[in-house]
Amino acid sequence: MEGLTIQNPAGLVIPACLKGGGLILPFRGKHPLIGKRVFLAPQSSVIGEVALGDDVSIWFGVVIRGDIACIEVGRGSNIQDNTVLHVGDEDPCLVGEDVVVGHGAVLHGCRIQDRCTIGMGAVVLNGALIEEEAVVGAGALIPPRMVVPPRALALGQPARIVRELSAEELEQYAVFAPKYVRVAEAYRQSDVFPDM
Ligand SMILES: CC(C)(COP(=O)(O)OP(=O)(O)OC[C@H]1O[C@@H](n2cnc3c(N)ncnc32)[C@H](O)[C@@H]1OP(=O)(O)O)[C@@H](O)C(=O)NCCC(=O)NCCS
């Protein structure tokens, strides 16, 4: 993924609990690669061939399972509580930079480009492509191989492109990724996680 900066921990012993208490597990010789200032909340799990960029936050109960193909989450993105990222045999799961993924979403073998917002409870299936700054509404179902164009709003089950987002809306959405970086930093700095 372009622009992804990863601090490669190869050769390090990865503790089970790191940077917030999330579980990091190698699988079949592949270790998750964790960038700088990553926050992994308790009960989150990151498994196998996974790369998390700098300033990524992975919230409570998230599962990121890179066991069949790889998963990447780009710099500054947040994956909110109880979301699942998994892959298809031929479909990695590639999330760009400054992406917001709402609570309880499922991203399966799909690509999400920079600065997208994926609504709470949305499901994005294999081979789907969500292009830059697009918004997938809460609860939407994005079918396999669907392409959501840049700066479009997709809603419904199955999802349809309902309209383009206005410049004002794009500005409003752009606030959330940096806000999550700040919230995650506050967790990292708090004394809730004394081992950090
Ligand atoms: C879709 C969304 C962006 C609102 O867009 P909007 O254009 O302002 O929508 P409005 O509230 O004006 O509603 C327009 C229509 O879409 C419907 N609608 C709103 N959200 C919808 C959704 N998620 N799925 C399907 N229909 C939706 C409304 O009921 C309304 O229908 P109507 O025209 O028949 O009355 C918002 O509802 C949403 O889903 N946001 C996602 C927030 C989120 O999960 N963020 C993640 C970080 S926490």
Detailed description of the structure:
There is one protein chain. 11% of the residues lie in helices and 34% in strands. It is mainly beta and 196 residues long. Strands 1, 2, 3, 5, 7, 9, 10, 12, 13, 15, 16, 18 and 19 form a 13-stranded mixed beta sheet that branches. Strand 1 and strand 2 form a beta hairpin. Coenzyme A is lined by residues 100, 102, 117, 119-120, 135, 137-139, 155-156.
| Estimated radius of gyration | 16 Å
SS summary, helix count: 2
What best-fitting shape do the alpha-carbon axes yield? globular
Structural category is mainly beta
User: What is the level-2 CATH architecture name?
Assistant: 3 Solenoid
SSE sequence, one letter per element: EEEEEEEEEEEEEEEEEEEEEHH
Unreliable runs: 1-17
**What is the CATH topology assignment?**
UDP N-Acetylglucosamine Acyltransferase, domain 1
Distance N to C terminus: 28 Å
Question: TL;DR?
Answer:
The protein is mainly beta. The protein has one domain: Hexapeptide repeat proteins (UDP N-Acetylglucosamine Acyltransferase, domain 1). 11% of the residues lie in helices and 34% in strands.
